[in-house]
Queue: 3 jobs
Job 1
Amino acid sequence: MIKGPVNKDNIQKVKALDGIFRKTMTYNDSVMLCFFDLEKNAEIPLHDHDAHQIGYVVSGKIQFVTETRGEFLAQEGDSYVFDSWEKHGAKVLETAEVVEVFSPAREDYK
């Protein structure tokens, strides 16, 4: 568990995929906050995970795809949610910054 305030500028980014960079901001066992930098044309393959995922698009445009709900566009000011084990993926249409919350916290992002 991380204690005290955390500034994203003080966290080294981790390359998750080509063009996808993550900063794990803060977390406990129940919830995790992450900041993502997404480069234009980067792709996130269809995947799922135990954690519920809620996101907020700070800037840019992302085309999401899910197995159950089809495709949807998320752009600056939009939020979205993926349930636990809901298959989802994305293509970054414009360079984007995204804040995401995972519950429970993802072990692979600690």
Job 2
Amino acid sequence: MPLSDRDRAILDFETLWHGHSGAKEEALRAELSLTPARYYQLLGRILDSADAVAHDPVLVHRLQRLQAAQERERRNRARILPASAR
């Protein structure tokens, strides 16, 4: 499925915010009218798209690597925690 205008806007927004500090949550609401939770849900879906890779391969591959690292970290923490703490 081709990227929608919103999908491209989300990728473009992420490009601008990479490496910058600031009130990203406020900017998400102001520029994209999205809550942070919804933004990250949509971004996760977009990153699985071949069209996203075609649109900005460097950004998408970087974000996919970050996602994979975060998932590994979550799995490692789950293995370390005792069952009663989960």
Job 3
Amino acid sequence: MRQKTLRAVIFGPPGSGKGTQGRLLAQKFHVPFIGSGELFRSEIEQQTELGKLARVYVDSGCLAPDDLVNGIVSRQMKSLNLKNGFVLDGYPRTVDQAAFFQRLMPVNVAILIKVSDEIALNRLKKRRKKEKRSDDLAETIRTRIRSYHFLTEPLAQFYRQKGVLLMIKGDQSVEYVHEVLVKKLAKLGFVP
């Protein structure tokens, strides 16, 4: 099997570890890691018009409209050198965003990290104590998990139909999940 360039999106419920796993994969495969959360925070910190809009959604724990998110991601992706691949975390979050992104920059693997709501909730509560992130306040955690089930979970079917879905359980240690993920990717022809 010929070695493939990794052009991956990684998704899962809040607290699934997708950001951590995405960063580890990007390091392993020597490709850029692109976190939509960082893109949003950058826009917010710069107080751009998009950033001001984004802040309203981040603070409420609700997902931003597709047009806003697509605009931020599209602009950022065009400014990066992605010829050797990428790992994208936190985007797309809806089927419409996924369809938009497939036209912009087709992915060849969509990694779904599955964890139960209970595990996600516990992880987010612990993270809240450590980082004091405004989007992890107790009342917004449940909203984020509900939003995930309603809007983002359907991505699994979208990517399954495209033949690029890779599911992995995220309830083990960071190191174990990473090791299993790298092995599964290798079986698909993605070798660092």
